[in-house]
Amino acid sequence: MVISVQDDLIEVKEYLKKLGYEVYSISDGIASDVHIYSEKNMGLANVYNAALPADNGSFFINADNRSVEDVAYMVEHRYYSPLF
User: Fold this and answer.
1) Which of 1, 9, 18, 33 is surrounded by the fewest CB atoms within 10 Å?
2) CA 57, 81, 61, 33 torsion-angle sign
3) 23: part of which helix (H) or strand (E)?
4) Residue 82 belongs to some domain of the structure
5) Which residues pair with 2 in a beta bridge?
6) Residue 36 in contact with residue 5, Cβ under 8 Å?
């Protein structure tokens, strides 16, 4: 699974790498299965413009108010939460 993380979410990026995931920054422009972002810092519209989806689509996770463990759980289980 390829994951792209917003550049300033360093703690999330490092945690997912330690779990063995292939992790990049969204700014790297790598097609990814999962995109993790902060609505506060980047905004959803900007993420959609910068993100390259994988061939089978992408799962977007807003990391705001979530621990790194919560984000990892969402990645592992493809757990969805409401956008609003």
Assistant:
1) 18
2) negative
3) strand 22-25
4) no
5) 22
6) yes
Q: Which of 14-18, 54-58, 61-65, 71-75 has the lowest mean pLDDT?
A: 54-58
Contact 21, 75 (CB under 8 A): yes
Domain span including residue 45: 2-77
Nearest in space to 59 (alpha carbons), one of 41, 71, 68, 69:
71
Whole-model pTM: value is: 0.84
What pLDDT does residue 74 have?
A: 94
For residue 46, give the amino acid letter. Answer: N
The answer to whether residue 83 sits within a structural domain is no
Q: How many domains does the chain have?
A: 1
CB atoms within 10 A of CB 23: 23
